[in-house]
Amino acid sequence: MSPSTFPIDPPAGRVPGTVWGGPSLRRLWPSDGPAVEAFFLRLDPDTRASRFMAAMNDRTIAAYATQAMTAPGLVVGVFVDGTLRALGELRPYGLGRTDARTGEVALTVERGFRRSGLGSRLLRRLAEAARNHGVAELRLRCLPHNAPMRRLVAGLGAEVRLTEGESEGAIRLARATPLSLWREGFEVALDFSLAVAALPLPAPLPAPLPLPFLRRAA
Q1: Is 100 helix (H, G, I), strand (E, B) or coil?
Q2: Which of 34, 75, 129, 178 has the smallest count of CB within 10 Å of its CB?
Q3: What backbone phi and psi angles, to 5 degrees, belong to 153?
Q4: Is the pLDDT of residue 180 over 50?
Q5: In terms of Cα–Cα distance, which of 89, 145, 85 is closest to 111?
Q6: φ and ψ at 169, to 5 degrees?
Q7: How many of the other CB atoms lie within 10 Å of CB of 183?
Q8: Which helix (H) or strand (E) is 24 found in, with range?
Q9: Is residue 118 included in any domain, yes or no?
Q10: Is the pLDDT of residue 14 over 90?
């Protein structure tokens, strides 16, 4: 496999984390748990199978959504008109590993909101967070017939290899820079403000997700 280096930097002149007049991408917090559960439960059977590489019933989906908000890593989402329509997850690569320089990314876009660049936006945001916390490589896995994901990964220059009935690609990440660290800090502050604004009152403030496998780059 020949991993590629992912171009993280956004186009010049664009405010980090925002798209004026378009979908809103932000980090998800434990207070977003109900929106995450509703998102996964809305997924049609084919999308569920593509995301989890197996058939999933509602009970299993709901249980996964609950633990996803407290598991090690980072979760980001895209809201369209106030409803979560796309979700990206960054996790440590490999079962039981909590201090790795390799991360695994999973992307899910609801049917009807695809082919609009949401997957690329999710991946860019997760890649920058991983880069800033010392992760050197991202892995993405999907079913062989998941053509959109394979095109996304291949479009970044990564070689997609079929192993044990799965397609896997690897993306090399550049080292963190002062600009990338500043940009992430700006986005986290903006995300927190947007999350608080979306909370019904009265409600507890969101708490940060644990990132034990990620460490801030030196």
Answers
A1: coil
A2: 178
A3: -65, -45
A4: yes
A5: 85
A6: -125, 155
A7: 19
A8: strand 24-27
A9: yes
A10: no
